[in-house]
């Protein structure tokens, strides 16, 4: 197989039906709707019921993305499944093989990507590289999370922010780089020196989870919000500029900025730093909170279904998360109907 670009050709999303409002949280925690709305822009988030896993959400979103791409879920539909998640069904094995099997996609390559909130863009970069290298024709790329399973429900600094959900795209080999949907530029970065700003301390080989440990809460997700806020704006702005420069787009020419949906104030500061009018930033977090690796495909599905993203418009994706990790992708929007 020869070198060719990879293009987005299908888009699907799935949110679990249980919605938690700010008022619901204020009834249980020392917080208010006013604080959450003004400090984050979030009004509601979805949560899975006990027993529902990340893989369950990924299967739903994957099914919809295949349908949107006009593909039946059957062997031969895609050549690989790449699943970005911070909340796999199990520490071992990866969740993607189970998702591929449940979708009936046959014995194809399937693997998880762990880059926290940047995971979906890392997964897109990896899948796109497989296609351009000629290793695959079509790949199902999913971002799925159940943060409700790793958040300390008593921690108001994280439990008001995160939500559960899944989004997915089908990437396919394109004839030429002028085809709408082609990923024109990709930028990825990391800074492991600041790994402690976002972490789940226990449960890995560094700090095993054993009953009776002095820090039983080490299994919960932790985030140093203020420091993360500043780094998120700076790194996403740098990465965005880098990817735009690499393909010769100016910031003024970007029609839609689809940033990681962590905080409305971050999106606003990012748009300002880039010199992109604020109204070009897609905002979806008010309905779903921060869904980590699912946030970009969920925001894309929302904006496309609202008619905000129109075929041919210039779209900049950028994300930031634990690791620290960050990344950006630029594409022109294809004629795709989200499912
Ligand atoms: O997804 C990966 C990337 N993640 C992000 O990008 C998240 C980045 N960080 C943020 O979005 C913000 O830092 C937060 C939303 C997490 C926090 O907002 P903040 O404006 O940075 O607040 P803060 O942490 O500085 O806290 C301000 C005050 C504190 O009280 P004192 O010390 O001033 O008395 C907090 O204890 O707000 C308090 N606070 C709350 N009050 C009511 C913190 N959480 C809450 C809450 N309700 N839920």
UniProtKB/TrEMBL annotation:
Its EC number is 2.3.1.180. It holds the Pfam family ACP_syn_III. InterPro entries: ACP_syn_III_C (IPR013747), ACP_syn_III_N (IPR013751), FabH (IPR004655), Thiolase-like (IPR016039). Coiled coil: none annotated. It is found in: Cytoplasm. Its main location: cytoplasm. Keywords: Acyltransferase, Cytoplasm, Fatty acid biosynthesis, Fatty acid metabolism, Lipid biosynthesis, Lipid metabolism, Multifunctional enzyme, Transferase. Residues 244-333 form the Beta-ketoacyl-[acyl-carrier-protein] synthase III C-terminal domain. The active site is at 117, 260, 290. The keyword NADP does not apply. Residues 261-265 are annotated as: ACP-binding. One of its GO terms (cellular component) is cytoplasm. GO terms for biological process: fatty acid biosynthetic process; secondary metabolite biosynthetic process. Signal peptide: none annotated. One of its GO terms (molecular function) is beta-ketoacyl-acyl-carrier-protein synthase III activity. Homodimer. Belongs to the thiolase-like superfamily. FabH family. The last Arg residue of the ACP-binding site is essential for the weak association between ACP/AcpP and FabH. This is Beta-ketoacyl-[acyl-carrier-protein] synthase III. It comes from Streptomyces kanamyceticus. The lineage of its organism: Bacteria, Bacillati, Actinomycetota, Actinomycetes, Kitasatosporales. The gene is fabH.
């Amino acid at each position: 197989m020869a070198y060719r670009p990879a293009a987005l050709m299908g888009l699907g999303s799935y949110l679990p039906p249980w919605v938690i409002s700010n008022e619901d949280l204020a009834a249980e925690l020392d917080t208010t709707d006013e604080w959450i709305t003004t400090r984050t822009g979030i009004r509601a988030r979805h949560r899975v019921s006990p027993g529902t896993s990340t893989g369950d959400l990924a299967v739903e979103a994957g099914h919809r993305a295949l349908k949107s791409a006009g593909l039946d879920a059957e062997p031969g539909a895609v050549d690989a499944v790449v699943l970005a998640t911070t909340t796999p069904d199990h520490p071992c094995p990866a969740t993607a093989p189970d998702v591929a099997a449940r979708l009936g996609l046959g014995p194809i390559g399937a693997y998880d990507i762990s880059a926290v909130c940047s995971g979906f863009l890392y997964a897109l970069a990896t899948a796109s590289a497989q296609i351009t290298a000629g290793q695959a024709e079509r790949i199902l790329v999913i971002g799925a999370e159940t943060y409700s399973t790793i958040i300390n429900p008593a921690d108001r600094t994280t439990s008001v922010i995160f939500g559960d959900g899944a989004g997915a795209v089908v990437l396919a080999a394109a004839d030429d780089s002028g085809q709408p949907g082609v990923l024109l530029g990709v930028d990825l970065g990391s800074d492991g020196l600041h790994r402690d700003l976002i972490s789940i301390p226990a449960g890995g080989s560094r700090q095993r989870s054993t009953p009776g440990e002095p820090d039983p809460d080490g299994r919960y997700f932790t985030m140093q919000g203020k420091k993360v806020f500043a780094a998120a704006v700076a790194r996403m702005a740098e990465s965005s500029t880098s990817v735009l420069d690499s393909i010769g787009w100016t910031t003024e020419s970007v029609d839609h900025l689809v940033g990681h949906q962590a905080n409305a104030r971050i999106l606003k500061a990012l748009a300002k730093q880039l010199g992109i009018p604020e109204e070009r930033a897609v905002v979806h977090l008010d309905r779903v909170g921060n869904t980590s690796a699912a946030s970009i495909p969920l925001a894309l599905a929302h904006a496309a279904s609202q008619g905000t993203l129109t075929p041919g418009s210039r779209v900049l994706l950028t994300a930031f998360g634990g690791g620290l990790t960050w990344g950006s992708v630029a594409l022109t929007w294809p004629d795709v109907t989200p499912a």
